[in-house]
Amino acid sequence: MGVGGTLEYISELIGSGGSHSYGKRKKKKQFQTVELKVRMDCDGCVLKVKNSLSSLKGVKSVEINKKQQKVTVSGYAEASKVLKKAKSTGKKAEIWPYVPYNLVAQPYIAQAYDKKAPPGYVRKMDPYVTTGTMAVYNDDPSYTSMFSDDNPNACSIM
């Protein structure tokens, strides 16, 4: 064992509390925020969901907006476990399906527009999903340079 190996061995012993875990490092969970849409009708539902999610290991805070039916969970818990715990309360729950409408290219097409969405939000969409009509891209440079500011003779109409 060289000097570098010895230092690594000692740091492993100190860092792991003396247990030998050569090559087995426990991956630390990332702090994340999980947003859910949970169907809640009354204050009792809100309390039930909040208590259930707060008891989950790694959860640091639970914020609930009853009007939007939105639950925001912050902590070191995985999104799938948070969703499973929310569903275990007997409430209909899903990952928050909405984004602000200004982040969507076409917010009022049938797939994005949702009348149940909170004000200012539309349904999250895959950007590569087509809506039945496709835009045709013409790669002909004559159309783009016809009214160019760089070419003074480009506009023949004037």
From TrEMBL:
Which residue intervals define the domain HMA in the entry? 31-94
Keywords, sorted A to Z: Metal-binding
Q: Where is the signal peptide?
A: none
Q: Which Pfam families match?
A: HMA
Return the PROSITE patterns for the record. HMA_2 (PS50846)
Domain of life, per UniProt, equals Eukaryota
Record PANTHER family:
COPPER TRANSPORT PROTEIN ATOX1-RELATED, HEAVY METAL-ASSOCIATED ISOPRENYLATED PLANT PROTEIN 23
Q: What name appears for this protein in its UniProt entry?
A: HMA domain-containing protein
Organism of provenance: Brassica cretica
